[in-house]
Each structure stands twice: as structure tokens, then as C-alpha cells.
Write a structure and sequence with these properties.
Elements (H helix, E strand, L loop, with lengths): L1 E2 L5 E6 L4 E4 H14 L4 E2 L3 E5 L5 H11 L5 E6 L4 H4 L7 E5 L2 E2 L3 H17 L7 E12 L2 E15 L10
Antiparallel strand pairs: 1-2, 2-3, 4-10, 5-6, 6-7, 7-8, 7-9, 9-10
Helix pairs in contact: 1-4
């Protein structure tokens, strides 16, 4: 557990790794488990990293070249994923999902969990597909390209996402 100086639980950490799960995500997972007996997930086919948590020099460089200072940098795209098929590449920047701005992976995770919960509340099922809109800035050769809104048809699953890396 990660606890602040006042004794409040902030989240969970996985040592010796660097994974940190905020308490908001842990509590949402518990709520969804109670409600659905599973934790539904969308398999987005991308590994992402927030711009705002890069070192300040890197953030400044991105801002000067591309005039952006928030969003999620695509670090990796799963081979064979819908994201790969639609042309998403490492270095692209995701700035919104279903019209909501996302600047951190925690914001993205909360949004995805809310989307899944709404889908199941409205009669959707595990194993069904749903469309989400992803706002993305294509970055090519170190320059900002056009902004696109991609419609990703994703599987609602209660299993882990298998990520296939190119070798």
C-alpha cells in the first residue's frame, strides 16, 4: 500500500517493479467485481505514456516542435491490433477518447472502466464489441501531422490483453 503522511491510502505499488495503481482504480475494480463478478476491459492494442510525466526538457522539445503539452504518447502498438490496422504508430499522441481529453494513463483507465461499466449496464456482454472514438495526432519524422479521430471496434473482455510486439 502507498500511504501519505496523514495515514491515507493513496494506492498500491508493485515492488521491485514500478507499477502504481491509484486507490480510485482499486476501488472501481472492487465495485465492478461486486456488480458484474468480473472486471471488464477494452483491449486497445497500445502501450501509452503521458507527456506530462516526461522530463521537463523532453516536454519542452515536444511543445516547441508540435505545440502540444498533454496527451499520451504511443510507445508501442500490438501487432495485428485494430490500432495497427488503422495506422497508429509509436510516437503518435492520443489526446482524447470518446471526446474526453486524456492526459494521463490514470485518466484513460478511469474513462475505459466507465465506458465498460456503462456498456454492461445497458445490456452489453463480456465478449461483445463496441466502438470508441480515439483522437490521435499522427507524428511523422519528428513533426506533428494531421489530427484524426479513429473509430476503434474493441472487444469487451474480462481477461488480460495479450500484447504482441514486433521483433
Amino acid at each position: 500500500m502507498v500511504i501519505d503522511f496523514d495515514g491515507h491510502v493513496l494506492g498500491m505499488a508493485n515492488f521491485p517493479g514500478t507499477a502504481y495503481i491509484p486507490s480510485s482504480i482499486v476501488l472501481k475494480c472492487l465495485d465492478m467485481w461486486k456488480k458484474f463478478q468480473c472486471i471488464p476491459r477494452l483491449h486497445i492494442g497500445m502501450k501509452l505514456s503521458p507527456i506530462k510525466f516526461l522530463d521537463p526538457i523532453h516536454v519542452e522539445r515536444i511543445f516547441r516542435k508540435c505545440n502540444i503539452d498533454s496527451g499520451l504518447i504511443v510507445k508501442e502498438v500490438s501487432h495485428g491490433s485494430i490500432a495497427e490496422e488503422l495506422g497508429v504508430r509509436p510516437g503518435d499522441v492520443v489526446d482524447s477518447v470518446n471526446g474526453e481529453c486524456v492526459a494521463t494513463t490514470v485518466e484513460l483507465e478511469n474513462l475505459i472502466m466507465r465506458i465498460c461499466e456503462n456498456h454492461l449496464d445497458q445490456g452489453g456482454a463480456i465478449g461483445s464489441c463496441m466502438d470508441i472514438l480515439v483522437g490521435i495526432l499522427h507524428m511523422r519524422k519528428g513533426r506533428k501531422g494531421p489530427r484524426h479521430t479513429l473509430s476503434l471496434r474493441l472487444n469487451v473482455s474480462d481477461d488480460v490483453e495479450v500484447f504482441i510486439s514486433d521483433f
